[in-house]
Please model this.
Amino acid sequence: MDLIGAAETGRPTRHRAEISTVDRVKNAAGVAVAAGALIGTAGQIAPALAYAAPLLPTHDDNASAEPIAFKSIAEAPLAEQLAAAVQPVAQPAPAPEPVAQAAPIAQPVAAPFGINNLPPELAAPLAQVEDMLKGVTQQVAPAQAVRPVAGAVSSGFGTRWGAFHYGVDFADAIGAPIHSVSNGTVIEAGPASGFGLWVRVLQDDGTTAVYGHVNEMLVHEGQRVNAGDVIATVGNRGQSTGPHLHLEIWDQGGSKTDPIAYLAAKGVPLHWGPSAH
Model:
């Protein structure tokens, strides 16, 4: 009320101009704004002062005047000094000792690719590779063919002594091994007219291989054979002038063909006399 002139009635005012009501209201508003700003600033500073108060130096009339006593390290007992200086360190648990095991005994490994005296660490992998190659060869390679015996060709396919000779003769010693010329299945092994004993193999290409005058049969009917397997031995049975193998090749229709031409088409050339195959 003093700001708007309500308390000035008893004072003389002749020496200054009268303040209008509008000016009094403006002055009151300015004072109010300044007071509000001061109160807001105090509200922001008060928490900070309260937070910092414990850090400021204070005076407590009730505090004891007794000085703080500091205990020297030298005054502490020796045992306490050692206990404080030396702290126990956790030791890691000892690792268990390895148990000795007996070294495995190396098993004998067949010589891969015909190479002898190889160490086991080389022989075993090479043997596996050899087996894999054999398996792949049997699956994707064309039918294999081999020479039936090592003996020399002594008579060919064609006319001989006024008659037709339907096979090829290989002169060899009695008991010499006879190999199957190709893969197939034995369809007969036993006596045969003129041959004494024979073995017939139905080959995978549909032809039939006939082995005559054999001395001993080493296979039986229904047995599966591969090219190179020993199926019999050379003999001199039946109508024969000496120990030899008589080989015939019958086509799918049963007609007899030249064994030399058949084996040559399979990659096994034959000629008179001994052969490297």
